[in-house]
Amino acid sequence: MCPMNWDYDEESECGPKYWPNADGRNQSPINLDLCLMKYNTMEPLKFLNYDVKFKGEIVNNGHSGSEHTLAGLHYPAELHLVHEGLANPNKLAVVGVFLVLGDDDNALSQECSVLNKIIDPAQSEQIQGILLDDKLPKNRKSFWRYMGSLTTPPCSEVVTWTIFTEPIVVTKSQLALFRSLHDKTGQIMKKNFRPIQKLYQREIQFIVTA
Q1: What is the pLDDT of residue 6?
Q2: Which residues of the chain have pLDDT under 50?
Q3: CB-based burial of residue 148 (10 Å sphere; 0-12 exposed, 13-18 middle, 19+ buried)?
Q4: Residue 42 pairs with which residues in a beta bridge?
Q5: pLDDT the model gives residue 121
Q6: Is 11 a domain residue?
Q7: pTM summary value
Q8: Is residue 18 part of a domain?
Q9: Which residues are catalytic?
Q10: Residue 80: strand pairing partners
Q11: Are 209 and 44 in contact (CB under 8 A)?
């Protein structure tokens, strides 16, 4: 196993099939198969402090990429918002948002404004005035949910995944900026996503809120 020096090369001794927990039965990402979903309803989601601006740090860790597929197809990119559990910080709730190409550059404008300063791994840059509400789609009433794992080592099976059915928009030039970043070998990032994992007996819920 290669928890520290892992990579995405299928032929590598540190590739995905050798990652910790790689043989688990609750691994992510998965294919969101529309034919296998169970319909459900629930109360609307509450996003605390998503409307409060804060400052943060963006880091090039040498790993990134779109991961889940919908009906077998990859989106251009995927955004993850990771939340730790209040009662148990080892449990995670991850909100996933697919990205599509368009003309609206608002969602990731702050991040893209500093990407040219973090081309190489381990570089970081401060960002001011981040508003998480901008990272969410307008339609927050429908989403998919399933139990899974972290998509990078140690691939711990501690994640409740919530993936919105509506994507947000990234421009072609913004996507090009993300794809200009270098991985840990100094090469431009490509195929930097974990292969789709088996669903096994897990249930994918299609949820619509009241």
Answers
A1: 84
A2: none
A3: buried
A4: 209
A5: 87
A6: no
A7: 0.93
A8: no
A9: 63
A10: 96
A11: yes
